[in-house]
Amino acid sequence: MPLIYADLVWLLNFCFDAMLLWLAAIMLKRRVRLWRLMLAALFGSLLVLLVFTPFAYMTSHFVTKLVISFFIVWICFGFHRFRFFVENVLAFYFATFMMGGGMVAFHFLLQSEITPYSSGWLTHSTSISWLFIVIMFPILWMLSKVQMGTIREKKLRFEHVIDVRVTCFGQTVCLKGLIDSGNQLRDPFTNTPVMIVELQPFAHIFPQAVLQMIQKRTYTDDIPNEWVSRIRFVPYRAVGVEQQLLVAMKPDDVQWLDGKQWISVKKVLVGFYPSSLSADGEYNCIVHPHMVMSQAS
Question: Which of 79, 166, 185, 187 has its CA 20 to 30 A from that of 12?
């Protein structure tokens, strides 16, 4: 008969419950007091001790597990309103399923015990050692925490990405624009806000002389006359880079999508950047916040 150390089993369950609650708090961006989190984990881990009592049959019942999980979430996060409580419960279950499913997946990935049958199916041993759980749980927890931060960052970025249309010489180019509050670039003479766009989507519109001027950031005399009155040179400074000149142009029209309505921007310059603005292609222009704020106000 195998020897079971009840204190170690309890300690592991206490630590796992605490880390699952912490992960749920991170997912929902909840501020949780440490004593509440520890108390909730302690309450949840006490269920393990019932296994060694005459009430062991109750621990495997679905209703018991459900009620215990509700109490764990209530102790940790409190009860402010019903929707708040349901969100916490679902996040706790999601964290539990994610961690449990991850450990089972890694177990099947790493194990080598396979038994062939005449029917052609393969079966694997499903026993997972405590040592495997102790090692893999913190690793999966850290991976989940990092991934949650990545998802939150992307979500925040996409919430500030809008559709933009720029029309130059009768030709319209559709772009994805990032609303960047740090972009305060303006034409020093007219105080006109400047939105920065990648040059590549406009390459088919511009004459070769204009393209070379944008790439070299120096004025040339061989550009067409109809372009001369539209060209501006705007000084700008990036982090770690000395002050440079950005070639900008007065467009025919610039519009951005507000829900289902296109909003026209009356006063704006379009500055052309020769390289890519986003490493993963999520946007190809940086929208000046004044373009959006002026409409909102």
Answer: 79
* Helix (H), strand (E) at residue 86: helix 82-110
57: burial class by Cβ within 10 Å (0-12, 13-18, 19+)?
A: exposed
User: Residue 172: beta bridge partners?
Assistant: 167
CATH 2.40.70 in the chain is located at 161-296
Instruction: Give the CA dihedral 242, 247, 250, 256, nearest 10 degrees.
Output: -70
- Integer Rg of the chain from CA: 30
Residue 177's identity, in one-letter code, is G
Reported pTM: 0.51
C-alpha closest to that of 270 among 289, 254, 248, 255: 248
Dihedral over alpha carbons 75, 76, 81, 84 (to 10 degrees): -150
Q: Phi, psi (5° rounding) for residue 138?
A: -60, -35
Query: pLDDT averaged over the chain?
Result: 79
Residues catalogued as catalytic: 180
> Would you state the pLDDT for residue 122?
44
Q: Report residue 60 CA to chain centroid gap.
A: 37
Helices and strands of the chain, counted as H and E runs: 9, 11
Concatenated DSSP letters for 96-124?
HHHHHHHHHHHHHHH---EEE-TTS-EEE
Q: At what angle do helices 82-110 and 6-28 cross, to 10 degrees?
A: 120
pLDDT exceeds 60 at position 192: yes
Q: 161-296 has which CATH code?
A: 2.40.70
